Every structure is written in structure tokens, then in C-alpha cells.
């Protein structure tokens, strides 16, 4: 057994270290899965998943040390120049803009009362409304000010927010993505980690951390830095995979969002709430989103059937599985109105 553990920790040339203990309560976690492979982007190594019963937190053990993290992102998603044409008058854009105008207050996205009335009508369709407002990360027009997006990628989200009057800033560790983001946003994009950016105290009205915290070696330090730079009346929005999601319950080991070894932590509503409070921040709201449920279902079905999902994208998918995904999306959305079983966990945080 000792020899097997040592071979796993070496992880095919990656410099790794054991992480036995929960980062919240420091108790040793139990193993729920052992010797998992990267089924999406073919990173080397074997990975175990531990679980803390007290805090309801999952994490990988061993974990890649910071100086070797780049090796597990080779072949990962690349950032391309985003499509920036926001003036389209397609039915889809009219629906989205109408919902954003009536639900989040971005009245500049509509041009007449008919579009506002249409937006109110479409906002009554819960799953459609969720897709629209999640693309703006639930930030309301009334909250406008300085906005920081941590892990901003190619800057597309910040670009759309800038056009609506936000003063935008980004932090991104991928130098290629930063180059693209700076072309469309200017110099307000920092290449590196948040702690190295050196923003002033109490600087931002809003901070968004979308599908980032699960990748971070020290999420508590990230949250503490967010607390320092967030204004007293500001809002922090955290979006991350939900370990209580319906897909996780159904697919288990084949759940798409395990994504070992890049997803270091997988949070539940309880564990993320505990970590946020440990950082000194306060929870102002918690919910889950089923916006990604369709393709998460398809991914889970294909992983269970094939064992791999190259590039993390479902290709050559049976139309029947796509129909299943659409049905599952509606079912998960309806259940998530009662229990937090959506694929993404969404926390609204203040000082």
C-alpha cells in the first residue's frame, strides 16, 4: 500500500504534495474516489478525491504544486478574440435584452415599451430568465461602479459590462488571454494572481469570481484579498460547481465537474458558506443555477458510456441524448426552486 501511494504522489513527473486535511476544519478527509485520470484534457497523473463529513467539502489529494500547475493546463481551453457585435436584433437577443432590462434594470438595452413588455413576459419563464441574468452574473444596473472580474479570460464579460457603464478591471493568469483582453479593454487587465495586483483597500463596488475558486490552491487567501479590496457596501458574486447538483448525484464518478486535477476543491452550499464566513465576509444570498444542466447531462452520459470526453466538449452526440438533456434541464430547474440541486452554486457576498 505504501508503494502504491508513493507512485501516485509522484504523478508521472508532476511535482505534487499530499493534502489530507480539510482547509476549513483541518480534519483529515476520507477517500471517496481513488486513482482517477483526467478524462477531459489528458493531463498526466492519478488523483484521489477526499471528503470532509463535517464541512461537506470535496478536494483532490495529492495536489499539484504551484510551479507545476501550468503542466495540467496544456491542451486546456484556449482563449480567442470574442465576437463583440452586441447590436444584433435577433429574436434571441431581443428576449435576452428584454429580460435584462426588466429584471436587472438595464433599460438602455431596449428601445421602446413593446420590448419592455416583451421582457416582462419572457421573465415569467424561469429557465429562460436564468440564462439571461446569469450571463450578467446577476449584477444590477443600480450597483454600477468599479467592477473586477477575477479570471477574466479574454475579457468578453467585462466588455459587455463596460458598454453598460461599468468601470471594468480584470485579473487573469493566462498571458495569452490577457493580451486579447487588453486589446478590447485597455490596460486595466492584470496578468497574474489577485494578491500580486496590488489594488487599493475598499476599491471595488463589485467583484465576480466565476468558475475560478475551484482552481485555486488557497481559496481562503483569495477571499481574504477580495474582502480587503471590496467596498463596505460592495458585492462579491461567486459562481462554482455545486457538489449537491442533480448531475453529481446521478453520475457520481462520471460527473463532468470533478475535472481532476484542475478542480482542486468542489464546494457544497454549506462548505462554501463556511469558507466565506471564515474569511470575514458575509453571505447575503445563496442559490443554484441550472443554466448548464443540459450539456452537463450530455457530458455525464458520454463519460459514463465512453470513459473520456476529449476537450471537455460533447461531440457527435446522439440527438436522443440531447433531448434527454433538455428535459433534464427543466426538471433540475424545477427541483432547484425547492432544494439547491442546480449545477452551479451562486453566492452573493458582502463585507
What does the average pLDDT come to? 92
Low-confidence stretches are 1-9
| Radius of gyration, CA atoms, in whole angstroms | 20 Å
Instruction: Count up the helices.
Output: 12
Strand order of the largest sheet: 8-7-6-9-10-13-12
| Overall 3D shape | globular
Number of strands: 13
N-to-C SSE series? Answer: HEEEEEHHHEHEHEHEHEHEHEHHE
Structure report:
- With 351 residues, this protein is an alpha/beta fold.
- The protein has a domain at 2-73.
- It has twelve helices and 13 strands.
- It has helices at 2-10, 91-103, 113-122, 126-135, 156-163, 175-185, 194-197, 219-229, 246-251, 269-278, 293-306, 319-336; strands at 16-17, 30-36, 47-52, 57-61, 63-64, 146-150, 167-172, 189-191, 204-210, 230-241, 265-266, 282-289, 344-350.
- A seven-stranded mixed beta sheet has the order 8-7-6-9-10-13-12, with helices on both faces. It has a four-stranded antiparallel beta sheet with strand order 2-3-4-11. It has a two-stranded antiparallel ribbon with strand order 1-5.
- The longest helix is centred in the C-terminal third of the chain and has 18 residues, at 319-336.
- It is globular and about 60 Å long.
- Mean pLDDT is 92; it is low at 1-9.
Amino acid at each position: 500500500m505504501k508503494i502504491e501511494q508513493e507512485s501516485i504522489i509522484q504523478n508521472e513527473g508532476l511535482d505534487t504534495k499530499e493534502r489530507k486535511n480539510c482547509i476549513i476544519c483541518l480534519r483529515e478527509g476520507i477517500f471517496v474516489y481513488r486513482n482517477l485520470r483526467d478524462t477531459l484534457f489528458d493531463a498526466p497523473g492519478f488523483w484521489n478525491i477526499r471528503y470532509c463529513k463535517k464541512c461537506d467539502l470535496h478536494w483532490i489529494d495529492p495536489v499539484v504544486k504551484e510551479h507545476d500547475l501550468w503542466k495540467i493546463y496544456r491542451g486546456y481551453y484556449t482563449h480567442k478574440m470574442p465576437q463583440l457585435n452586441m447590436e444584433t436584433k435577433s429574436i434571441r437577443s431581443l428576449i435576452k435584452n428584454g429580460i435584462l432590462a426588466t429584471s436587472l434594470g438595464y433599460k438602455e438595452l431596449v428601445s421602446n415599451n413593446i420590448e419592455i413588455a416583451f421582457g416582462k413576459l419572457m421573465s415569467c419563464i424561469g429557465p429562460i430568465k436564468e440564462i439571461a441574468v446569469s450571463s450578467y452574473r446577476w449584477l444590477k444596473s443600480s450597483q454600477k461602479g468599479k467592477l473586477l472580474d477575477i479570471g477574466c479570460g479574454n475579457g468578453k464579460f467585462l466588455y459587455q459590462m463596460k458598454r453598460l457603464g461599468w468601470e471594468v478591471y480584470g485579473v487573469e493568469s493566462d498571458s495569452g488571454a490577457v493580451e486579447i483582453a487588453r486589446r478590447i479593454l485597455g490596460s486595466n487587465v492584470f496578468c497574474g494572481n489577485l494578491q500580486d495586483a496590488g489594488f487599493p483597500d475598499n476599491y471595488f463596488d463589485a467583484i465576480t469570481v466565476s468558475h475560478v475558486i475551484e482552481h485555486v490552491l488557497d481559496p481562503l487567501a483569495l477571499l481574504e484579498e477580495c474582502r480587503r479590496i471590496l467596498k463596505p457596501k460592495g458585492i462579491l458574486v461567486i459562481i462554482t460547481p455545486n457538489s449537491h447538483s442533480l448531475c453529481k448525484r446521478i453520475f457520481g464518478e462520471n460527473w463532468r465537474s470533478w475535472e481532476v486535477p484542475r478542480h482542486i476543491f468542489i464546494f457544497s452550499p454549506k462548505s462554501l458558506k463556511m469558507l466565506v464566513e471564515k474569511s470575514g465576509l458575509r453571505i447575503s444570498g445563496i442559490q443554484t443555477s441550472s443554466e448548464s444542466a443540459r450539456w452537463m447531462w450530455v457530458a455525464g452520459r458520454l463519460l459514463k458510456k465512453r470513459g473520456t470526453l476529449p476537450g471537455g466538449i460533447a461531440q457527435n452526440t446522439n440527438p436522443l441524448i440531447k433531448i434527454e438533456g433538455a428535459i433534464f434541464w427543466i426538471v433540475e430547474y424545477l427541483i432547484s426552486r425547492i432544494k439547491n440541486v442546480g449545477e452551479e452554486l451562486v453566492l452573493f457576498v458582502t463585507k
